[in-house]
UniProtKB/TrEMBL annotation:
Domain Uracil-DNA glycosylase-like as annotated: residue spans: 6-162
Chain coiled-coil ranges: none
Entry protein name: Mismatch-specific DNA-glycosylase
Recorded superkingdom: Bacteria
SUPFAM superfamilies per record: Uracil-DNA glycosylase-like (SSF52141)
Keywords per UniProt: DNA damage, DNA repair, Hydrolase
Length: 185
């Protein structure tokens, strides 16, 4: 079973980053495909999507400004099966993707994902004070796995903060572009 394809392009509002694909995602070729994963419900309930999408529709979210990748490409049953070497290589590859595609926000779906990426510990939910890739906002949200003990409502609330952040940043970016055009005009 091989890795699943990234859904990524330039000018994304959010690049969602998970640990790695589940076995179910590896079998289907789609992100967050495990039926116990609440990702698609969370996006919808947080107002990030106009309806609840299915894993098979993951590629359609590019049109909404959302992309998907993982820190490790190999599908496993649990993140505990990922080796230190896979994380080391994954960190490098992920930094290169973020630097190349420059999404507005990178949302790490799980504190553990961000810890592996950044090497930082004891991090808060939400926006991180310092970005690894300058100019790209890093946002940490809870994992959407059904194994997470947080209440769904608490997780959704953090993802709502992501929605508000994206709206605010996108608006500022548009205002900045218009100001530059008027100065040239």
């Amino acid at each position: 079973m091989g890795p699943i394809p990234d859904h990524i392009r330039e000018d994304l509002d959010v690049l969602f980053v998970g640990f790695n694909p589940s076995i179910r995602s590896g079998e289907t070729g789609h992100h967050y495909a495990n039926p116990n994963n609440r990702f698609w419900t969370i996006l919808y309930e947080a107002g990030l999507t106009p309806r609840k999408y299915r894993p098979e529709e993951d590629g359609q979210l590019l049109a909404l400004g959302y992309g998907f990748t993982n820190i490790v490409a190999r599908p496993t049953r649990t993140a505990a099966e990922i080796s230190r070497e896979e994380y080391r290589q994954g960190r490098i590859i992920l930094r290169e993707k973020i630097a190349r595609f420059r999404p507005l926000v990178v949302c790490f779906v799980g504190k553990g994902v961000y810890e592996q990426y950044s090497g930082r510990r004891n991090i808060p939910w939400g926006i991180q004070a310092e970005s690894i890739v300058p100019g790209v906002i890093e946002f940490v949200a809870p994992s959407s796995s059904g194994l997470v003990r947080m209440k769904l409502t608490e997780i959704v609330e953090i993802f709502r903060e992501l929605k508000e952040l994206v709206q605010r940043e996108r608006s500022q970016k548009i205002k900045h572009s218009l100001a530059i055009k008027s100065q040239k005009g």
